[in-house]
Amino acid sequence: MSVVAVIGAQWGDEGKGKIVDLLAQRAKAVVRFSGGDNAGHTIVNPQGEFRLHLVPSGIFYPETVCIIGNGVVVNPAVLLAETDDLNKHNVDTNHLFISDRANLIMPYHIVLDGLEEKRRGKGALGTTGKGIGPAFADKTARLGIRACDLLNREQFRSRLSTILELKNAILTKIYDAPPLSEEEIFLQYCAYGEKLAPFITDTSTMLRQMLSRKQPVLLEGAQGALLDPDWGTYPYVTSSSPLAANAALGCGISLKDIDHIVGVFKAYTTRVGGGPMPTELKDKTGDFIRERAHEYGATTGRPRRCGWFDAVAGKFSAQLNGFTDIALTRLDVLDVLDTIKICTAYQLDGQIIKHFPSDVSILEKCQPVYEELTGWKSATNDIRHLKQLPTQARRYISRLEELLSCPISLISVGAERERAIMARQIG
Ligand code: IMP
Fold first, then answer.
1. What superfamily does domain 103-196 belong to in CATH?
2. Which of 131, 189, 194, 247 has the most C-beta neighbours closer than 10 Å?
3. 265-422 — its CATH code?
4. Best CA proximity match to 116, nearest among 136, 97, 96
5. Catalytic residue (one of 13, 113, 138, 228)
């Protein structure tokens, strides 16, 4: 294994946590490079069942360095609650490090996320409400407060003072909301800083040293390609790039360092929040998939919209990311279906198209064109070798490989770590 990036290939929630947990066995470092605590990675392993929002999924391996990279926005309260909970379950977190360049989520980001959504009314994006959009907007507007500021109180106070003056003007004058107290935020964040100080460091230097020793590194993506601010269903997207191209940038290594890019696809499609989803099933089959697979958000608990595999969106994602391998998750969810559909094209104004439109008002008009395959109607949870999968399941997998032009190297058939079929070595 060299440097492997694990990327969400659809609209997030593809089961990246499990794939990272599996691949992390061989990694010396696991690094988060984008997003924030809008992510929710569910991991089921011998230590229990965990929902991680910020801590990299490699935390369960005590020898593995876990890094929250510069590309992540960090809510220190959430991070501390998460590490406390892990510690309570006897999971050591002393091997976790936070980039000194990571921007912090501040209380006004969360308040503004809520107010902005309310203001959008019917056009609300359905954000997770964690302050992600406002925090990334401030990063770009050069109004961010970074982890390194927590180590320098004078600088922190002065930056907070300038920024909060502006935020309070927005809160009171635009939203008619109460202002936030500078003193309270300052003291609260100084307390977080004291607890986090031992872990805040120049993580990119750490990583580069590991790379020079040829140590295997895993880059853990969050969200999914179709939520990318440039390439996703804009404006129904998140605010940082979940794509492989951002993996190097979000942790401070070079693009050339990445050897393998694993795209994680669910065997069907889900989406939470607003925005178009051409293969959404607003019928009994959609409800059946949701209940069978317990498709409810790990971060917000919202029901996920469920539908058939969209190979048009999938191919677009595979090309943008340059996947070298695919990990297909939740194949077992389809075990009981008589027939399974794959969307291979869209019908738009009487024409068949095979590309993913940039404009959501056009994507909303696209009707899926389906290919129908016979289901395999038998349990796959206990299968560990590709050859043992039912013929129809193998046919489904090969058809996806063909449509996505990429080999499916790993197939997940259940939540637990061992419920996986390694068809091809990754890394
Ligand atoms: P935000 O990232 O909270 O600003 O939310 C923007 C959009 O991205 C909303 O539609 C969210 O539901 C979606 N989103 C953000 N994070 C995730 C995730 O981890 N999984 C799935 N959807 C997400």
1. Adenylosuccinate Synthetase, subunit A, domain 2 (1.10.300.10)
2. 247
3. 3.90.170.10
4. 136
5. 13
Q: Looking at ligand 1, which residue's alpha carbon is closest to its atom 21?
A: 12
Residue 325 a catalytic site member: no
Q: Write the CATH number of the domain with boundaries 3-101+200-260.
A: 3.40.440.10
Every domain of the chain and the residues it spans: 3-101+200-260, 103-196, 265-422
| Residue 41 annotated in active site | yes
1 Cα: distance to centroid of ligand 1 (angstroms): 30
SS3 label, residue 240: coil
Distance of alpha carbon 300 from the chain centroid = 14
Cα distance between residue 11 and residue 307, in whole Å = 12
* Radius of gyration of the chain, Cα coordinates, nearest whole angstrom: 22
Q: Of the candidates 256, 259, 319, 252, which has an alpha carbon nearest to the alpha carbon of residue 33?
A: 252
| pLDDT category of residue 297 using cuts at 50, 70 and 90 | confident
Q: Look at ligand 1, atom 5, and give the residue with the nearest C-alpha.
A: 127
pLDDT, tens only, 176-196: 999 999 999 999 999 999 999
Q: Among positive and negative, which fits the CA dihedral 248, 40, 263, 343?
A: negative
Residues near ligand 1 (Cβ within 6 A): 11-13, 38-40, 125-128, 130, 132-133, 222-223, 227, 236, 238-239, 272-274
